[in-house]
Design brief:
This protein has 327 residues and is an all-alpha fold. It is built from 15 helices and 2 strands.
């Protein structure tokens, strides 16, 4: 019974004391920005910060949701297909009719809630490993999509495309939406019982249970919130494309990319440590690297190799720093 308070206190420190780690991650982001922009300018390219932010929105919102489930010691490998389902169903329901926009948004939100609830229940109630449970969900969604739709499923009205291309002055609506998602997630994780419980579960689910935390409820909510971020991403993508197709989520590699952004942002894959502010930095680092590689016309396969090396190196540095901190 002595271990429970100790572990709970450790979770409390992880919950409240994120500032030093976050500062280091943003220092890395600043360094990557300086190096990448310097190389781009030296190569005769141009820096478009607004475009980099817009290109970060889709991955960023999924990564915020992925952060919440990973903090609780879980995982969601179905996010890419959830994005595809949202894009396809939104365009299928709307069919280019402005009067059906609200119906389309409500329909995909309900689908997202159902998928998130199913993932959470399968993991917590049935006791299935999150990797297997969400991989199975991904396969189910892929089968339904590919058997029902070959290509674009319809169109969204021009009015809905304002989300992808409109803005307030120089600030795109999509960036404002992303910032709102980040702020809401940050408040939930830092200032609510749900956030405290999620960190405790990620630190040690058994200890959290002994401390009176209802782990199933918190993990289910985390998966539901993750699915809702996928819905927002799907709506953003379909507003940019004008229509949805089964491949829009998988082409973005949102499953592995979101996990990479979360880990790059300093969140432990085992859960209990990290936060959405670090994830935002991780997303921006990946966006800056993509922009750099594209402007330098780096070979696609070499680009993947370099990104992989950078992610592994960053995680190795975090691991070494963590060991020194425990020593």
């Amino acid at each position: 019974m002595i271990a429970a308070p100790a572990a709970t206190n450790r979770a409390w420190r992880n919950w409240r004391g994120l500032d030093s780690d976050t500062a280091i991650i943003y220092g890395v982001l600043a360094l990557v920005a300086l190096i990448s922009w310097g190389l781009i300018l030296a190569n005769g390219g141009q820096i478009n910060f607004a475009n980099t932010l817009v290109r970060s929105v889709a991955l960023g919102m999924v990564a915020v949701g992925q952060t919440m489930v990973i903090l609780g010691g879980s995982l969601d490998l179905s996010v890419a297909y959830q994005v595809s389902v949202t894009a396809v169903m939104a365009s299928y329901v709307m069919q280019g009719d402005p009067d059906r926009m609200l119906l389309g948004v409500v329909a995909v939100t309900a689908i997202g809630l159902a998928i998130g609830l199913a993932n959470g229940v399968i993991i917590t109630v049935l006791g299935i490993n999150p990797f297997i449970a969400t991989l199975g969900m991904a396969l189910i969604l892929r089968g339904v999509l590919n058997s029902s739709f070959d290509n674009f499923a319809g169109a969204v009205p021009e009015q809905f495309q304002v989300l992808g291309y409109g803005g307030i002055g120089p600030i795109p609506y999509s960036v404002l939406l992303f910032l709102a998602v980040v702020v809401i997630a940050w408040v939930l994780l830092r200032y609510t019982r749900f956030g405290h419980h999620l960190y405790a579960i990620g630190g040690s689910e058994e200890t959290a249970r002994l401390s009176g935390v209802r782990s199933a409820r918190a993990l289910i909510l985390a998966h539901v919130l993750c699915s809702l971020t996928c819905v927002l991403t799907g709506l953003f993508i379909v507003s940019r494309l004008g229509a949805g197709a089964p491949w829009v989520g998988t082409d973005g590699n949102y499953d592995l990319e979101s996990i990479a952004a979360v880990v790059l942002g300093g969140t432990a894959l085992t859960g209990g440590k990290g936060g959405v502010l670090g994830t935002v930095a991780g997303v921006l680092i990946l966006a800056l690297l993509d922009n750099l590689f594209n402007q330098l016309q780096v070979n696609t396969f070499l680009k993947d190799v370099l990104r992989g090396v950078i992610i592994i190196a960053a995680v190795a540095v975090y691991a070494l720093r963590g060991r020194k901190g425990r020593a």
